[in-house]
Design brief:
Layout: E1 24-29, E2 32-37, H1 42-47, E3 54-55, E4 62-63, E5 76-79, E6 84-86, E7 97-99
């Protein structure tokens, strides 16, 4: 099994090459303070600071999102309060505190309300 996520200790999977003049947005990922840019999705914010989004709950292997449009269910993360959200369709917000561990993102109970993210997208 791979070690837990360690943002900031590895180079981000994504490298920003444009639009670097947008307003910085501070957020916390697994207890570490990081910065993204206004308008970034949670997925972009995480992957510009870390080599992976999360580890698969099935294999433990690193994951970085798959379809990037909210259909595949591969980018679920959670806020520290336990709210589930899709990283690919949710915009990062100032002060957002995110956790990416498997134990932090409960499996879908079948409740349709669980299938929405913080941004109100389904």
């Amino acid at each position: 099994m791979n070690p837990p996520l360690s943002p900031g200790k590895t180079m981000g999977l994504l490298k920003r090459v444009a639009e670097s003049g947008r307003t910085p947005v501070r957020f916390v990922l697994n207890g570490q303070a990081l910065t993204a840019l206004a308008g970034d999705t949670v997925l972009t914010a995480v992957l510009t600071n870390s080599a992976q989004l999360r580890n698969s709950e099935f294999s433990g292997e690193p994951r970085a999102g798959f379809c990037l449009m909210g259909a595949c269910q591969d980018c679920w993360v959670a806020t520290e309060s336990g709210q589930r959200l899709r990283a690919c369709g949710t915009l990062i917000e100032e002060g957002m505190c995110l956790v990416t561990g498997v134990e932090a993102v409960p499996r879908n109970s079948g409740d349709p309300d669980e299938m929405t993210n913080a941004g109100g997208l389904t």
